[in-house]
Write a structure and sequence with these properties.
- The chain is α/β, with parallel strands linked by helices.
- About 35% of the residues lie in helices and about 15% in strands.
- The chain is built from 14 helices and twelve strands.
- The chain has helices at about 20, 30-35, 45-50, 60-75, 100-105, 135-145, 155-160, 210-215, 245-255, 275-280, 295-300, 315-325, 325-345, 345-360; strands at about 5-10, 35-40, 85-90, 110-115, 150, 165-170, 190-195, 220-225, 240, 260, 285-290, 305-310.
- Helix 6 links the parallel strand 4 and strand 5 (about 150).
- The radius of gyration is 21 Å and the shape is globular.
């Protein structure tokens, strides 16, 4: 029997963006083993990716974006050879839904994958000037036209069902068998590491805890490790910060004794899948997260982690102190967190959800 062909129309290069690599990209081998042929096509090139979230570089960003549009025009002529086109976020980033209209018109079947409340127009500081010309209506158009929509949180799934009843909520997941392996001994025989992982555009939320970190630094010898923003710093706190790269990500996360996940109480947050909490917990790292959105379904407060409201800085400090000083508490929460991820947020626990969607559309 001839293999079915799936084209993944992606915004970002493969293995770069969390919304791709910790969602569907890590299932590519699963799809191939299930007799699907996989082809990827990214709008953003590796060259554009390297400068995308940096300030300035306006001319280069314009040129690389222009080539992204040329690439999308070329791919239109081969859409019919694919049995299914899997679109993540958008076909093109700016303007009207013209390209989305053409892709939906030509393609045999469409699966639309949406991550976060991106249609609200959230943007990084480095690219604020693109905000006004971003195509916010593209997401709604694709929700309406897709044969099936994959979401990542209950709130986002509820929103999409206004436009399409064929939805599946699949959270971000991690590979707990060969990649996310706990190594923490939960001992106080070293400088305790509090850690955070994210990006240049989200590191500002870690500053929500600036005063908490400074107060703790007066009493405890700990280090704050930040992945995703090499410029991050807090006066009076021992900070070690890195830009994100696939090569260092897991090894650096494994150094964490405690993971923090602060978020603002803003509407777009309700679409986030709780990825940081999932990554920390998969590595057996006791986690403190803002009590908001999908974090409620991942963390059972006091059982497999802690949930703290956005502005309850007194409780943030208390929970951090408890975890800094107690080996047993870190071990108990860390191991329960790992168990939660294995059972609900691992590749093994979710692979059949993707295959069920493809099989239902392609027979």
């Amino acid at each position: 029997m001839k293999n079915k062909k799936i084209l993944f129309l992606l915004p970002y290069p493969v293995k770069k963006a969390p919304s791709q690599r910790l969602k569907f990209e890590q299932y590519f081998s699963v799809f191939i083993n299930a007799n699907y042929d996989i082809t990827t096509n990214s709008f953003i090139s590796d060259k554009l990716w390297h400068i995308l979230y940096k300030p300035r570089y306006f001319l280069k960003k314009f040129i690389f974006t222009f080539f992204g549009y040329i690439n999308r025009i070329k791919i239109l002529f081969s859409l019919r050879k694919y049995d299914l086109v899997y679109i993540h976020l958008w076909v093109t980033p700016m303007g009207t839904s013209f390209f989305e209209f053409i892709v939906c018109l030509i393609s045999k079947k469409i699966v639309y994958d949406i991550d976060d409340m991106v249609f609200l127009g959230h943007s990084s500081e480095a690219n604020k000037y693109f905000q006004r010309i971003k195509g916010k209506n593209k997401m709604i158009y694709l929700m309406r036209k897709a044969n099936h929509v994959i979401t990542c949180t209950p709130k986002l799934d509820e929103f999409v069902k206004q436009f399409n009843s064929n939805t599946t909520d699949i959270s971000s997941t991690v590979d707990t068998k060969s990649n996310y392996i706990p190594i923490n001994n939960y001992k106080n025989d070293h400088q305790i590491i509090i850690g955070w992982s994210g990006s240049h555009s989200t590191s500002k939320y870690l500053y929500l805890l600036e005063n908490v970190f400074q107060e703790l630094a007066k009493k405890y010898n700990y280090k704050l490790i930040v992945i995703g923003d090499s410029n991050f710093d807090i006066k009076g706190v021992d900070v070690e910060s890195y830009n994100w790269s696939e090569e260092i990500e897991v090894a650096t996360l494994q150094k964490f004794d405690i993971g923090v996940y602060p978020l603002p109480d803003e509407e777009w947050v309700y679409g986030k899948s709780g990825l940081k909490a999932i990554q920390y917990m998969a590595l057996g790292i006791p986690t403190i997260a803002t009590a908001i959105g999908a974090n409620y379904r991942i963390i059972n407060d006091g059982i497999n982690g802690y949930l703290v409201s956005t502005n309850n800085f007194k409780l943030w400090k208390k929970r951090l102190e408890q975890l800094i000083t107690s080996e047993n508490l870190r071990e108990r929460l860390g191991k329960e967190g790992r168990k939660t991820i294995e059972e609900h947020y691992s590749i093994e626990a979710n692979k059949d959800k993707y295959l069920a969607i493809f099989n239902s559309l392609l027979g």
